[in-house]
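User: Please look over both lines:
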Amino acid sequence: MTIRENLERLEEQYLSPYAALSSQSKGRDVWEPDCDIRPIYQRDRDRILHSKSFRRLKHKTQVFLAPEGDHYRTRLTHTLEVSQIARTIAKSLRLNEDLTEAVALGHDLGHTPFGHSGEYVLNQICPQGFAHYEQSVRVVERLEKGGKGLNLTWEVRDGIRNHRTSGHPSTLEGAVVRLSDKIAYINHDIDDAIRAKMFIERDLPTQFTDVLGHSVRERLNLMIHDIIENSQGKPQIIMSSGMEEAMKGLRTWMFDNVYCSDVPKQEESKAQQLIVFLYEYYCSHVEKLPGEYLVMMEHQGEAKERVVCDYIAGMSDSYAIDKFEELFVPKAWKV
């Protein structure tokens, strides 16, 4: 018996009856022989971790565009915080940690440069529309490894696609990531906003903090405990009604006072115009795209606009700025 088979047997003996067992996965679109060491979801986690799109997250905006300071979150640190919260919950509920971590690490792979402002403008100008959760699935199915994709399992892709607020993941592990994403960004965005001197902790509405807690640490502790206590032994991942309503209320307050405020938005129009310029340029000069994108158009029948959107969405903030300067900013003439 291989190490993988032993690990699968341990899952069957230990995990919750509601957990997604590695041995019962719906599998991959393209069949592959099993690894002799790693169960199927662990392989998916490893593939995401070693992907180029995952590494690029370190240079993509979370909320604050090009912040001056090393301690503001990026899309990568957000992803790692989601993963840690999700694993804590999954482990406590005896769910499949490998599947949970794979979904968490992959959920934002399709995010654009410049955060949600980049997502918004691409959705406006691309005829096929753009949503980061769908793009994340497209990254792992079509764009990684030179167009071959990562060939991830159905369960991981389902969790990635359905991590958004209106999503309905098919596994409890996916549902854990969906809630962990919100817990992570609400709390770390508060931390970043306080660091940016937008407000202080006691400015947060007490009607929400009296329920959720009066510090990032306390809120994380209370919210995670609430999910575990209310989901224990149940075929669903839920929060208590009071905690959920307070979280929704604080999230709405954050939209009004942080996400849509002048501080993180002050460079947004410039960033969006930059993306528009890049999009229009590459739509008019498709020959300037990297080779794998040309193959997608010429041999796979992908629309030009879709491929240009793929290329721009994959850029880091710094790479997009460098490309803009290369294409549109005049350079000094030298002898």
